[in-house]
Write a structure and sequence with these properties.
Number of domains: 2
Strand order of the largest sheet: 1-2-3-4-6-9
Structural class: alpha/beta
CATH architecture of the largest domain: Alpha-Beta Complex
Strand content: 5-15%
CATH class of the largest domain: Alpha Beta
CATH superfamily of the largest domain: 2-enoyl-CoA Hydratase, Chain A, domain 1
Number of strands: 9
Mean pLDDT: 93
Largest sheet: 6 strands, mixed
Shape: globular
Radius of gyration: 20 Å
């Protein structure tokens, strides 16, 4: 009996219950929606976000789907981390197995964000603390308000500064020296310094917090309007090459580039250059 070919149709996008999602101009907007708690995370938000990123990655193959994502918080803040009442208090009642189930789930969220092939732009308003700081770190670009700050505050609550992949990601973004200071002290890192050390992609005047969201959307839309296949490949290679030696990385890039050269966008870019017009990406 012959096997049926695999179903490659994109998964239907579920309607989230613990946050909001909408698509506008090929940009998917994920909104953490607990403004009264500075968008603090609950067990449900963690789990649902993790599953959502995995599904939206599959949907990125849909010709009509989103081409870039914005991760934002409702109201004045981005995300203050795990909710003290809804999460932290309950952890004291768990044994080691139960604690590991939780810490592994939080790490799965960061892994899902890095594996998602759509570019993710974080809109960092005022507060990005704890798990919120790591979620912004795991995004590809970070647009910050001038009054915003990061706080990898885990040591200040008696926990390791290495949480949810922060000790793997942060040195790769800002260097080992800066990462060591940030993760060991748990002190706030304000927007101006974030820009100096490479933790911030763009600074925005934030007297009106909506200006930060608007700037993040504009950055995401510029990516969404660009060569989708090439950007997917770029993010994939950036992630994969972090653990490769130079020779292996060069070979991986050679193969990736050859694949891109077979894609219609490569020929379209050349035709657009000859015709002196904007490319019409596939």
């Amino acid at each position: 009996m012959s096997e049926h070919p695999p179903d490659l149709r994109p998964l239907p996008l579920p309607t989230p219950r613990s946050f909001r999602y909408e698509e506008r101009d090929r940009v998917g907007i994920i909104t953490l929606d607990r403004p009264d708690r500075f968008n603090a995370l609950t067990f449900e938000v963690y789990r649902e976000l993790c599953d959502f990123f995995a599904v939206i990655d599959r949907r990125s193959l849909d010709p009509e789907g989103a081409r870039a994502l914005v991760l934002r918080g409702e109201g004045k803040a981005f995300c203050s981390g795990g909710d003290v009442e809804d999460i932290i208090g309950h952890l004291f009642d768990r044994d080691m197995e139960g604690l590991l189930r939780f810490t592994r789930m939080t790490g799965e969220l960061i892994h899902a964000m890095r594996e998602c092939k759509l570019p993710i732009v974080a809109s960092v308003k005022r507060v990005a603390a704890g798990a919120g700081a790591v979620m912004a770190l795991a995004s590809d670009l970070r647009v910050m308000g001038r009054k915003a700050f990061f706080a990898f505050l885990f040591p200040q609550v008696g926990l390791s500064g290495a949480d949810m992949g922060a000790a793997w990601l942060l040195p790769r973004v800002v260097g080992l020296g800066h990462a060591t200071e940030i993760l060991m002290t748990g002190e706030r890192v304000y927007a101006e310094r974030c820009a100096q050390i490479g933790l911030c992609s763009a600074l925005v005047d934030d007297e009106d917090p909506a200006a930060v969201d608007a700037a993040a959307f504009d950055r995401a839309k510029a990516l969404a309007d660009g060569p989708h296949f090439a950007l997917r490949m770029t993010k994939t290679m950036l992630q994969r090459e972090l653990d490769l030696d130079l020779r292996s990385a060069i070979e991986a890039e050679a193969q990736a580039q050859a694949i891109c050269m077979e894609h219609p966008d490569f020929r379209e870019a050349n035709a657009a250059w000859r015709d002196k017009r904007a490319p019409r990406w596939k």
